[in-house]
Amino acid sequence: MGQMIVHQREVIRINTSKNCIEYSTNDGRSWHHRANASSSMGNLQDLADNGKEILLTTTKGLFYSTNKGVSWHKRS
């Protein structure tokens, strides 16, 4: 896992200073905000591309997104 992945032609990263998800469509030359971590997620740690979904490890568990990180759901 890492703090930056390529998923469906976007570069997606964790911005640790803002505890949020950002994305780039131009190979990282500019970044745009995608989602904030909610209080139930804790601090964002690592990302992984799992095919049709993105996995996110946080201090409060494992989360997944099927919409490029716009929304996150806790994996049971």
Helices and strands, in N-to-C order? EEEEEEEE
Give the mean pLDDT: 95
Determine the strand fraction and express it as a percent band.
over 45%
CATH class category label: Mainly Beta
Class by SSE composition: mainly beta
Largest sheet: 4 strands, antiparallel
Q: Remind me, CATH topology?
A: Thrombin, subunit H
Order of strands, widest sheet = 1-2-3-4
Low-confidence stretches: none
Q: Quickly give the CATH architecture.
A: Beta Barrel
Distance between the termini: 19 Å
Number of helices: 0
InterPro entries: WD40/YVTN_repeat-like_dom_sf
Protein name: BNR/Asp-box repeat protein
SSE map:
Layout: E1 4-7, E2 10-15, E3 20-24, E4 32-36, E5 44-49, E6 54-58, E7 61-65, E8 73-74
Antiparallel strand pairs: 1-2, 2-3, 3-4, 5-6, 6-7, 7-8
Could you explain how this protein is built, in words?
With 76 residues, the chain is mainly beta. It has a single domain (4-74), classed as Thrombin, subunit H (Beta Barrel). It is built from no helices and eight strands. The strands form two sheets. A four-stranded antiparallel beta sheet has the order 1-2-3-4, with no helix packed on it. A four-stranded antiparallel beta sheet has the order 5-6-7-8, with no helix packed on it. A hairpin with a 2-residue loop joins strand 1 (4-7) and strand 2. This is BNR/Asp-box repeat protein.
